[in-house]
Structure formats: structure tokens, C-alpha cells
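User: Predict the complex.
Assistant: Input components as received:
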Amino acid sequence: MSARSARVSKPPVIVLVRPQLGENIGKAARAMLNFGLVELRLVAPRDGWPNPSAGPAASGADIVLEKAQVFESVADAVADCAHVYATTVRKRGITKPVVTPEQASRDIHAEEGRSAILFGPERSGLETDDVALARTIVTVPINPEFGSLNLAQAVILVAYEWSKHVPSVAEGGMALSQPTQEELAPPAPQDELDGLIGQLDAMLEDSGYYFPPDRVPSTRRTLRTVLTKAGWSSQELRTLRGVLSALEGRKRHRIS
Amino acid sequence: MSARSARVSKPPVIVLVRPQLGENIGKAARAMLNFGLVELRLVAPRDGWPNPSAGPAASGADIVLEKAQVFESVADAVADCAHVYATTVRKRGITKPVVTPEQASRDIHAEEGRSAILFGPERSGLETDDVALARTIVTVPINPEFGSLNLAQAVILVAYEWSKHVPSVAEGGMALSQPTQEELAPPAPQDELDGLIGQLDAMLEDSGYYFPPDRVPSTRRTLRTVLTKAGWSSQELRTLRGVLSALEGRKRHRIS
């Protein structure tokens, strides 16, 4: 292992504790894979495993389901993990650090050793005994008057935050498809913008737009400001000059 | 209104464009309310509105569904919005800035005027014509080998990021220390921009600019993109409409 890759922490394990519906397991798998997480562990799934409802809900994230491991207890599921996080929306009578998904993500990336993130059953969330196994509680800051997140939504927020802090490929990390501005052409050189302004200016002179004379300098300044604002590219300026030429040509055509 | 509350931007409007399943509308409403967003607009929902499948899926977010407004077109839905964001996972042949949900959230909080965020239909996403109405594209950085987010998941990630940047009451004072933004008038509501585009469009029709016929839709889209780029204020749009009227009047004057 190179020194570089050694700096990249292993992705966290997602542990679904006593999940009820196969459909929700599938949706959680999909949410994981969306953000590059592939290791799913199931603790005592209510309807057994495999579950025929999981596959269709995973919408193609089959690899996550196929590799999912099943355990009898939370303790077994996290036995190889150095850092265990418990997700809960409710306050618990347990004195542990409480962090946001963002902070948990930073910590997971900074830590050595495997991390596991526990998610409770759909209806009731994690039990106090489950939370007791964790060193840290993860809570999503949420609307206090409407605080229920479904299982897949909780998983996707945590996976999304984890992915945001993944080192780039150059840093030895994973390639997520970042938005790119490549397609956005840079603003044209100033003389091209001046060409547009000059063409419009001549047409407006001709039309009697500049009146009264004492306000012409400030009117010209205003127009220049408006036309500078967009930062048009060379291609966009050519389009706009074509527009002006069409408007000019129309006039010539009409009066000829 | 106090000075402090005047600095806090209004929450964005969530616009679901041609959503297919009522269940997904309900889940999107739930995701919104989880993070404090309540204004939902629907453009031409496939199965009409109200939809009996939406309520159960909203899991209690009924207030969002009850207040949802229905529009026939995207243009109508965002007519009062100064900032329009289009969410898309695919690269588009459209030259607009592309930002992450995090950056969009920061921008929305910094801007004055209403913001709208467009989400496309489940199966196909936003059409090119929908994206043309937006000034900015929002893309969630995602696993390039597994890039499909369902509708409610896309909504929850955007809503979650928005909620992360809501200023606390204590931070109200900090926002006041940005005097430079005050001088810059906010972009006009979308219908005012549409007024300019409509006026220019009629003039160009008249001039024979739109030729050949099969390229007219893409030419119109290009022009809209160019004219959307600047984010002109109401005052600036009035100036530009005066310019167009002068160019029109010149023609009338000459040929009379």
C-alpha cells in the first residue's frame, strides 16, 4: 500500500438494526451506492434475508445487497469497527457526544480504523442498548416541528456528507462526478463587447433615442453597465450582433 | 419589518416539473418540511391534483400539500422568482454556471428576491427548455457509476443544504455587515425578463431573423440563455425595453 493511499480512511460500514421492510433496505442500498458506500450490514432483519422486496427498491444497487452481511446482534455487526456512531433524532438519556452528519464525516475521514454507522428500525429508531454500543451520536439538525426522517433519507444524508469529504483522486481518494464549469465559456475580451455597444449605439443615435442631449453621457454609461453585467462570451456576443443586424436589416428592408 | 429580519432571505420555492407519481410528490413534501421548506409548486402533474396517493406518502406534511399551487408551465410557476435553479444530474449542452447544493444554498441565502429550484419528472429529468429558464444549474456530486437519485432524495439533499445555512438569530447582525450587496439591485422577477424576451422575439419574427424554421427552437433557447445570464434588475429591464422601443419606433418613423 502506498503512503498516499494509506492516508485515505476506509469508507464507513452502514448497519441497519432490525430493519422492518425489505423495500427500505433496498432504498438504503441505493442511497449508499449513490455516494460511493458499498458495505451494508443487517442486524436481525424482521422478515429474514434475502428479502424479495429489496432488489426492486434498490434500482440497480444490487452489488450492495449481494454483499450485505447478516448478524444476530449489533455487537457482532460492529465487532471489527473502531468507531461506532449511532444515528438518532431524539434526545437520549445517555451522555455521549452528539455531532452533525457533517462533523461525523470529518471525524470518520480523520480517524484510522473502520467506522460503523448504526440506523434503527423504521418505526422506533435505535434502542437505548444499541446506542450504548456507540461512542458518538449522530443527529441530523431537523425541523423541530416535523422531525421524522425515513430510513433511506437518513442514510442518504449521512452518505452524502461522507462523500463531500472524500479526498479527490489527486489526494488518493475516489472520483465523484463533480459539477464542472467547462461548458461555460469565459467572457469575451473587452473590445468584442465594445463592438456590440458601438453597433447598438449607432442604431440608437439613428433612432432618436439619445434625448435630451445633456443626459446622453449618463444614458450611455447606464447602457454600458447593463450590457457589461452578463459577461457574455465571444459566441454570445456574435449572437447578439446577429440580432442587432437583423433588426437593422429589417428597417432597411422596410424603407427600401 | 425589522432590519434584522429584512436581511434573512425567503426560503426557496420547490417546483416539481411534470411529476409522475403522487407518492413521490408526497415524499418530496415530507423532505421539504423536514428542513423547514413549505412552498411547493407543481407544473402539470401527470395525474392531476390533488392526488390521493400524495397524502399518505407525506407522513404528516399535509400543510405543504394543502398549500401546493399548480401551474400549467414552468414559466408561470417561476414568474415571481428572481433566481431560478435547475437541478440535473446529466451534463447539458447549455452554457450556464453549475454549482453544488452547498454553493446554491449559500447563494440563495445571500441573494435578495425569491428563489425557485426546479426538479424534473422522475423518469427523464428536466427538459432542455426547462433548464433554459434557469440561470444556474444545481448538480449533486454523485457516484459516476451509479448516478440516479430519486425525486424525494434530490429534494431532501437540497433542502438539507439550505437548512444548514439558515442564519441563526444571533447571526442576524453578521449579515448586516455586507453593505456592498445593498447597492446591487436584485434580479427582476422572471415575468419581467419574459416581457423583454417577448418584445424582442416579436421584433425578430418581423425581421426575418428566425430562419431556417427547423432551427428556431434552438435559436430561441440560445437567446433566452444569453438574456438570462446577467440577472438584470427591474430598472435595467425597463432600460432595455426602452432601447427596443426606440429601435422599433425608428423603423415606424422611417417607413411612415
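The beta strands of chain A are 13-17, 40-43, 69-71, 83-87, 98-99, 115-119, 136-138.
Let me know if you want any component modeled separately.
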